[in-house]
Design brief:
Layout (H helix, E strand, L loop, with lengths): L12 H9 L7 H11 L4 E4 L6 H12 L9 E4 L3 H14 L8 E4 L5 H9 L4 E4 L1 H9 L10 E4 L2 H6 L3 H9 L6 E6 L4 H10 L4 E4 L2 H4 L4 E7 L5 H11 L5 E4 L3 H13 L4 E4 L5 H13 L4 E4 L1 H4 L9 E4 L6 H8 L9 E7 L4 H11 L4 E2 L5 H22 L8 H9 L3 H13 L68 E6 L9 H12 L9 E3 L4 E6 L3 H8 L3 E2 L2 E2 L2 E3 L2
Parallel strand pairs: 1-6, 1-7, 2-4, 2-5, 3-4, 5-6, 8-13, 8-14, 9-11, 9-12, 10-11, 12-13
Antiparallel strand pairs: 15-17, 15-20, 16-17, 18-19
Helix pairs in contact: 2-3, 3-4, 6-8, 15-16, 20-21
Length: 572
Amino acid sequence: MQEVNFESLGLSSETLQAITAMGFQQPSPIQAQAIPPLLQGLDVIGQAQTGTGKTAAFGLPALELVDIDQKHIQVLVLCPTRELAVQVTDELRRLAQFQKGLKIETVYGGDSIERQIRSLRGGVHIVVGTPGRTMDLMERRALKLDKVEYVVLDEADEMLDMGFREDIENILEDIPAERQTVLFSATMSKPIMALTQKFQNDPVLIKITKKEVTNENIEQVYFEVKQRGKSEVTCRLIDAYDLKQIIIFCNTKRKVDEITEELSVRGYAVEALHGDLRQTQRNNVMAKFRAGTASILIATDVAARGIDVSDIDAVINFDLPLDEEYYVHRIGRTGRAGKKGKALTLVAKDEKFRLRQIEGYTKVRIEKGVIPSFEDIVGTRKARFIELIQQTAEEGDLDLYDDMMDMLHHATGLSTQQIVAALVKLNMGIQRSELADTDLAWEEDRKFKDRNDRNSKGGRFEDRSGDRGGRFEKRGDSRDGRFGDKAARPQRNDPGMVRLFVSVGRKDRVQPRDIVGAIAGEAGIPGRVIGAIDIFDAYSFVDVPERDVRKIINAMNGNTVKGKTVNIEVAR
C-alpha cells in the first residue's frame, strides 16, 4: 500500500507549514482517510477513539474552508465537555498559527457568558463549544449559525450519553441544510445512526478498527488487590516502575479526593481533576501537570475527557471503569507518539468479571502482575539512591561540603554511620505503613462464573418499555400527593432495575439530561445504563441498575441538580 503523507492530501502551504512546526510527520489512519473526502465537501462519519488524531482529521479541512475576510461564524464544533472543547480549540489554533486573522472562540459553562458574547460580537470564524452553552447563546441571539457551512459533532456518543440529544438536534436544525456535517464517535449505536440518518447527506463511513486503535506500545498488566490495599499498591507501583508522569483514574469524585489526599500525605506531587472544580482551577491543575510541577493527576473519566499530554508514562486504573470503552479511552493517554507506555489496573475480587469483559471487548489478554513487596520498594529506592550519589559525586564541586561531616559530628555527637543513615532516610522518604507487611493480593477461592445478567444492556437510548416516550418521557402531574396519581406510582418494569425518587422536578426547571448528567458525573456510571425518567412538578423518578443503587444514593445525596440540593432514595 502506497504511503500517504500530508503533502499528498491537498492542503494549503500555510497548513503544511503549521503541521511541520508541530512536528507531525505522517498522517494517522483517521487523518489519511477522512481529510480527502472532507476537502471534497462530503459528509463524514468517523468511528475513532481518543488518541487517533481525529481533531486534526476534522480540523485541517475546517481551516481550509474558512474565508478569513468573511467576519461571521463558518465552522461550529460541538464537544461533550468543556475540557475537550478547550483542547480542541488549542489544537485548532496551533494548526492555524500561520493563517493570520483567523479567530476561534470557545464557549462552555463555567466561564463568563458576557465575555463570550463580547468575543462573538467582535467577529469569529470558528466556534468550539458544549451543547448547553451553545444553546444558551443561541437563545440570547448572541450566537448566529445561519451562515455556518461546516459543523462537527466530536465524541457524539458521549454527548448523547450525557443527555444532549435534544440540544444537538435543535442546534443542527438551526444551521442551513446545505452545510457539511461531520460526526466522530467511538461507537456506532442506534441513537448515533439515527442522528446521522436525520442530519447527514450520504455520509462517507470511516472506521478505525480496534487493531488500529490499540497501541502495541502499551504494556497492559493487572494486579489482584484487596480493596483496602489499593492505595498502598498504587504507591508501590509508582516506585517500582519509577513512573515520572501518570494519570490515576477513579470512578467517582469522592474517590478522587480520597486518593489525592492519601498520596499527598505520602509526599507525592499530586493534583485532582473532577467536575467540582471551577474552570480556573482546572486550568491551574492542567498547567501544573503539563509543566511537571505535579507528576500525578487523579481524575474521573468525564473530567479527563480532552486531556492531551504526550509524555504520560503510565495510566493506573485505581477503579475498573464501568464501561469497556472507558478502558480504551483511559489507556490511550499513554504510549503516544511512538513512546512506550504502561496501563496498570488494580482489580478487587468483585471486579474480576469486569476485567474479563474488558478483555473480551478489546480482544487483548491483560497479563497478571505480582504486587511488589515493601522490601522490593526499599531495595529499588536504595539502588536509585546509590546511582544518584554516584552521579552527584561525578559532577564535582564537592569541596564546598568537605567540612560538613566534622560539623555534624561536633553538633550532634553522632557517628559517621548514624549521620549517613539519617541523611539517606531523609532523602529517600520511605515510611513503613500499616500494610507494609500485609499480603495485599486476594486469592480466588472458587471458579469464577460470568454474571451475564449483570452485563445485559439495551441500546443507549432505546425505549425499554416499548412506549414512544421511552427514557425521556415526561408524564402528567400528580394532584393527590406524592404517589396519589396512578401515573406517578414508582412502578418498576425492567428486571435488574430499581426506581429512585429524586426531590427535584419540573418547577426546578429540571430536564432528563440534567438528571442523567448529575448521576453519571457524581456516581461515575455511564449514562447509557440509566433507564426511564419520569419528571413531575415537584419530584422525579429514575430507573437505575440494581447493582449501582447504593453507589448512586451515596454519591448524590447532598449534591445539586440545576443548583438545587437534592435528596435521592429508593421509591416506596
